[in-house]
Amino acid sequence: MGLLVGLLWLASCGGGSSTTGGGGGTATPVLNTTMVNVDGGPNMGYVSVTVCNPGSTTSCATIDHVQVDTGTSGLRILASAPGVSALALKQVTDSNSDPVEECFQFGDGSYLWGPVVQGDVSFPPAGEKAGSLPLQIINAPGTGITVPNGCNSGGGLNRGTVEVLQANGILGIGRTPQDCGIACATAPVQPYYWLCPNTGCTTAALPVTTQVSNPVIFFNSDNNGVMISMNAVGAAGAGLTTGSLTFGIGTQTDNALGSAQVYALGIWLSGDYAGAITIQSTYNGVGYPGLLDTGSPFLLFLDPATAGIPACSGSYSNLYCPASTTNVTVSNQGSGGTAVNTQISIGNAQQLLGSGLVAFSNVAGISGTGASNDVVEMGMPFFYGRTVFIGIQGQKAPSGVNALAGYYAY
Question: Fewer CB in 10 Å around end: N or C, the chain?
Fold first, then answer.
């Protein structure tokens, strides 16, 4: 369990910032919801994804246990996932027909490596389809390509196996259209994209049209964001739980914002999250970058000295272990918006994770080592018992929402 905790508490890190066309306006209604299951992890929400050869409705693979991640953008599937090896997905190349590979790094330096391909993607039983979506196949065999030093020079963990990833892939449906965006289109940005002919790999710029992209923006409708509704989980945890992932915001009768408070995202200008698109979370009068991220299995809340909550010991030392459940209040504020208090609960992580259950609403980890790099990352526990909206930057928002950089709402 100690090793598992060490692997799974790693926070996701979002992509770049670019705009894209398209709108989220109403169209002929289609079934726009797929189920989310939390049956392992712990605190990992999974969906099933169908990937087909471009233009085909029969050469397809439906892949289960793909993690839902609102902290990144882009679909990434393990080459070892059932059915993937039988597909013939279109390889993305440059003008010289050199194949494109990607190194996608997480906040802790761990990474995923593999080719960028195109395929048709859908989410049963929802009716939307992302045609010719650029996606990443993780650790694709037979390429003969060694991971370049610019990807793993920091000695980061390769997360490209099901044992480490704890999933068959990652569905990044975060606040950005692509994982890197316009920055990677104008010049090479290490570690993202690489051209890898037989002579070796070099970093490369890549047009946004062929960058690994948030699948939602490729839908014909329901393409401006997502709504995640998870069942509540009690303080003792649960053996499993479920919820739903609904595509679109304000595009059909089942995804209206209603009375949800909107938090427009802005640019945070201090600490390790410089340039990241976040809200501000204030605790005890001090503001920190705030994120809503289903890709993090735990709440990540400041450091023990700042939070005033004791850490666990031994292999659980990156988590919190108060003697009894502690409730803390943070004030969340979007760009130019109103600050609203939100309560989060922090339980004894060692006791909870040792219970054998898989869904916990109150397991929290340590986000930093002091005020300069502390964050308030509201991971999967935050989503239990809530309906949360993630609005995508550059897509058409519902009437009355002014959030050019995207938004959260709950």
Answer: N
